[in-house]
Amino acid sequence: MDIPIPGCEATMPVFNYQNRSMHYLQQGQGEAVLLLHGLGSCAEHWSAQMTVLSQHYRVIAADMRGHGLSSPSLQPFSMSQLAADMLALLRHLNISRCQVIGFSLGGMVAFELALLAPHCIQSLVIINSGPQLAVQGWRLTLLLWFRLAVIRLLGMRKLAQIIGAKLFPDTTQQHLLALFARQMAATDVRSYRHTLRAIGRFSVQSQLARLTLPILVLAADQDYSPVASKAAYVKALPNAELVVIKNSRHATPLDQPAATNKQLLSFLAKVVQPGRSTTSNTIASGGEQHV
């Protein structure tokens, strides 16, 4: 079954896997690019990236467990299980090689996916995320516990309003605030809790040396965790570069879509060509250089 997406050329097919349904967007042709959304978000929030990337690539954006239109999860799960979901989807689509772009939660899943299927995953783009919670700073740990408390006391709708207001505080971003808050409020509460706890347990820090594939890390200058924390783990990766996106908070693909797309297109143009790879370096987009 294909579900049409209003205002978008993509369709959202359904993949039945382990007694659950996984919905995903698919658009374009060519080399495969998988987009992994953040916590409380969904595949449709990648629309600005899908519109641009699908002109050159076959772009897939999946709804994770309990997000968007995918089935909720009654039982706890790990980040590696979310990665296994995505690998099953790639196999279902007969994709043997893929570039992966992950934002926040999606970045953590992307790390796990690259370790799970190194022969399939050819490159990573990690947006405002990291290889473990501790690397991203103690503030993020407190934020996870705060979210659990708000859900318990006030519910998902109130949490969506609180987080949305922090992500999109400017008056010009009210449409983004409404889009995010509406989707997050509709996220299955049990799946959201399970995902928060999976984030708290997640760590691939000790395995960074195994990740020899090209990796681009995009860091918002006003993200929850400082740029320095991303720069530190980038140094531990064999083949990675860090780009700082100016005037952005955590939801960089939404609040700075043009800057995000520019970096994605530039990186993908290098890594999808056989025999080409990035070199270890760090640049800044409209800002200072970080070494």
UniProtKB/TrEMBL annotation:
Signal peptide limits: none
SUPFAM superfamilies noted in UniProt: alpha/beta-Hydrolases
Keywords in alphabetical order: Hydrolase
Keyword Hydrolase attached: yes
InterPro entries according to UniProt: AB_hydrolase_1, AB_hydrolase_fold, AB_hydrolase_sf
GO molecular function: hydrolase activity
Domain AB hydrolase-1: start-end pairs: 32-255
Protein name, UniProt field: Alpha/beta hydrolase
Organism the protein comes from: Rheinheimera muenzenbergensis
Lineage: Bacteria, Pseudomonadati, Pseudomonadota, Gammaproteobacteria, Chromatiales
